[in-house]
Amino acid sequence: MALTPQLAPTDFESAERVADRDAREKLYAESAIYRHDLPQGTRYTKGTNVTAEKRSWQSLDAILRSDAASFEALPHRKLRLARLFTALGIATSLVMIAGVAASAREGLDLQRLDGTGGVLLGGGLATAAFGITAGVFFTRARKDYDRAVDVYNDSLGVRLGLYTPDGKYIPPRGALVDKDGYILLDEPERAEEPAADAIVGPAEPEPEPAPEAAPVPETTAPDPAAPPTTPAPDVALPDAPATAAPGATALRLQMR
What we know:
single chain; mainly alpha; two-stranded antiparallel sheet; 4 strands
């Protein structure tokens, strides 16, 4: 693992301080891990550069350890067991080589097995057993590394604000999406238009209440059978002085 070329880890602290949505989308594309199914097996690249070298699963160790979520998904125990059985296989292979050197003159006689023949046979069987076991653990570790890639990409999108924790894409403001999350229409200017209820302006003066109309007096239609009445003529009387004589007052009353 240490001799395998490692991909550069992701600087999450600086990426999370980016406020622009387009810049976050670009950072996600440059920091995500992509798979490539080749005849020699699955290979991985970081970013979308077509000239990037396609590396094996072992080169993902540094980049997956840069995120806490993907670090927890790494198969630490399986890797330790795979390394242990690999070391045991190398040790037993040395024993097998020693047995081959010791029995080179006499050869291996399975009917009359002696000490050198036993060392050769035991070393060979142990080497094969340890090698198969180490291969099984490395295969399982490779699958777990592939699963940790998904965890890393999901965690990267969540930390950049592009995905929800359950893996749903968060469309940019002003974008119309369908039920599957695909963008149907991208109109950034829709997000810039304030909502109708959000416009705050000067308060309009309340209209003054209309004055109440004076009540119209009720009129009754004249009775056609009744004789017409002639109104009395108005007689303009001179204003009486403040101190009038008693005779003048009587004369005024008689005229009325």
